[in-house]
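Annex B.
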Amino acid sequence: MVVAHQPSNRQEKELPIIDLMGERSQVSKLIVKASENLGFFKVINHGVPQHVIKAMEDESYDFFSKPTSQKQRAGPANPYGYGCKNIGFNGDHGEVEYLLLHTNPLSNNTISNDPTLFRCAVNGYVEGVRELACEILELMAEGLGVPRTSVLSNFLRDSHSDSLLRLNHYPPLVQLVNNTNSIGFGEHTDPQILTILRSNDVPGLQISPRDGFWVPVSPHPSTAFCVNVGDALQALTNGRFLSVRHRAMVNSCRRRMSMAYFGAPALNARIVCPPELLSPHEPNLYRPFTWDEYKKATYSRKLGDTRLHFFRAQ
Ligand code: GA4
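gibberellin 2beta-dioxygenase: predicted structure tokens.
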């Protein structure tokens, strides 16, 4: 069976769970459907070895367990490194501490007591999730009927790709009274092409399929990665795939850990929808732009701002 909807408690949304070992054309159809409907889905049998994931998780737990003064030596996250509560450069805050790393090259030596071990864990993990992201992008192109099936994955395979790895730690907030201080990472869309998210078994991710409506996503199954469409992929598919708002809440008793790979183009890459996805009835929704232009627009705004509509075709 390719897709399973697992039983869940009422408040949680079960994202489609797509088995990547299923029959290829079926799998690509399911991925396209999920990307059009929700912009989010989970994948199992994804090919990233368990030991590679565990090595990265162990390093991540190790890092966040260090005393604050040691973690601060890897900061501030300007633009890469350790950050605590401050998000971006425009005054956004959340109950989160994080490590933001560029995937090539990885240079910060102050993160671990054993930088070589840390670098090996990151490189192994990034290689695994990048390959997974490329495979999913190729399945998407196939499902969309684009003959050059590497047209999307090539952005991530580019040696100058601006992809990032973000390790997030949401410590428990014992004094949670209402929702006001329970936001770990405020609502936003991901600017890049595709996000591959791995989290521990503590819930927290919520998605907003429509305005003002929030649905918690269960952290199960533990063998899955959660995948979501970013703004650049929404533009590359002429709005067919949805870059959906999401946020992370903190838990009152357990710490949440997540690791997000944001697959991005090179700075000089042009984001243009393949001609096969356009027709006289569906002309370009967005003007061509470079990733550099889009990234600058993203970083000059607040976390929750909508940015893609500034790039709409006239
Ligand atoms: C959201 C997705 C990624 O985590 C991120 C974030 C970035 C940051 O934390 O520095 C941004 C945010 C994210 C979008 C708007 C800008 C930039 C914080 C912020 C206020 C690393 C990214 O690429 O964009």
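The CA atoms of residues 27 and 169 lie 32 Å apart. Confidence is low (pLDDT under 50) at residues 1-10. Further annotation is deferred to the next reporting cycle.
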